[in-house]
Design a protein that fits this description.
2 domains; Glutathione S-transferase Yfyf (Class Pi), Chain A, domain 2; binds glutathione; alpha+beta; Glutaredoxin; 9 helices; four-stranded mixed β-sheet; about 325 residues; two-stranded antiparallel ribbon
Length: about 325
């Protein structure tokens, strides 16, 4: 675990001293937008046109932010247009790593050993964290974006003209955007990032604040999903996929490792059915790897789990029936 400073790797844990024990997530640095014709997006430079075979996605199967991009890639039919490399789940002194020669954890573009080499290839003097997901542009030889919230929007709409892409699948429809944004805002701060704020807090009060906010939001989501199948507009949207990647990890990782233990997702009737419902959407199960999720959190975060022993349980059955078909 560490970061790049002026293009050099430094092994250091998150600095929570300057924030009184509170975990604060850094903003992503590569913020260009891939667009239909290469016109500039809301931020960054232009010239990132949506083309088949041009982009390569770097992910970890453990990472909830990267997971969003894998789900969108699958459900939008982008797999043959956007290739992928998967880092090894252990993120220790050198940060995210590849295992050259392995089938599962190779860097298919450069055969790099470390993810930080990709960042310095993109920007030799880079300062900042080396995170996944990262969307590499083969043409410009740089990272187009390393912000998952934006990568999923690009996947949702920029590649629609390419062969076989599910252009009719729209997870961010115009008419629902305001409500999706509103739900995302609360879910991001209190749930997606909320579990990290609880888990990475190094002061009791900061942990308790994050814990209280997290369960206040889970109670709110439980009520909302008791009467409706999806979060917004009676259809699957980006808001659901963003929540899903945290919920699917919750009982295996956040409940124990991050001390988010008022109750498990399995103890919430609506939320637990909802997770199974989303998991059972065709193609989604293939993006979920509970073994890599557990391995990553319990082995990498040694300040939280110094023994690096990975728990065997819990038993999870996301294939069980969910009974949510009758909800509107
Ligand atoms: N804003 C980023 C956050 C990505 C992120 O924090 N990824 C984690 C893995 S779950 C990471 O790579 N962390 C490495 C680090 O912070 O050094 C996004 O949503 O894309």
């Amino acid at each position: 675990m560490g970061l790049l400073i002026g293009g050099k790797w430094h092994d250091q844990w998150y600095d929570t001293d300057k924030t009184g024990g509170k975990f604060e997530r850094e903003s992503a640095r590569f913020r260009n937008w891939v667009t239909v014709d290469g016109a500039p997006g809301p931020e960054g430079e232009g010239g990132f046109k949506a083309e088949s075979g041009r982009y390569h996605l770097y992910v970890s199967m453990a990472c909830p932010w990267a997971h969003r991009t894998l789900i969108f890639r699958r459900l939008k039919g982008l797999e043959k247009h956007i290739s992928v490399s998967v880092v090894h789940p252990d993120m220790v002194e050198n940060g995210w790593e590849f295992r050259p020669g392995s089938d599962h954890h190779r860097d298919h573009l450069f055969d790099f050993r470390f993810m930080h080499q990709l960042y310095t290839k993109a920007a030799p003097g880079y300062t900042g964290r080396v995170t996944v997901p990262a969307l590499w542009d083969r043409e410009k030889q740089t990272i187009a974006s390393n912000e998952s919230a934006e990568i999923i929007r690009m996947f949702n709409s920029a590649f629609n003209r390419l062969d076989g892409v599910e252009a009719g699948v729209d997870f961010y429809p115009e008419s629902l955007r305001a409500e999706i944004d509103e739900v995302n805002e609360r879910v991001y701060h209190t749930v997606n990032n909320g579990v990290y704020k609880a888990g990475f807090a190094t002061a009791q009060d900061k942990y308790e604040e994050a814990y209280a906010e997290l369960f206040r939001s889970l109670d709110w989501l439980e009520r909302r999903l008791s009467g409706q199948r999806y979060l917004v507009g009676g259809q699957l949207t980006e808001a659901d996929w963003r929540l899903f990647t945290t919920l699917i990890r919750f009982d295996a990782a956040y409940y124990g490792h991050f001390k988010c233990n008022r109750q498990r997702i399995a103890d919430f009737p609506a939320l637990s059915g909802y997770v199974r419902d989303l998991y059972q959407v065709a193609g989604v199960a293939g993006t979920v790897d509970i073994a890599q999720i557990k391995r990553h959190y319990y082995v990498s975060q040694r300040t939280i789990n110094p023994s690096q022993v990975v728990p065997v349980g819990p038993e999870l059955d996301f294939d069980a029936s969910h009974g949510r078909e009758s909800l509107s």
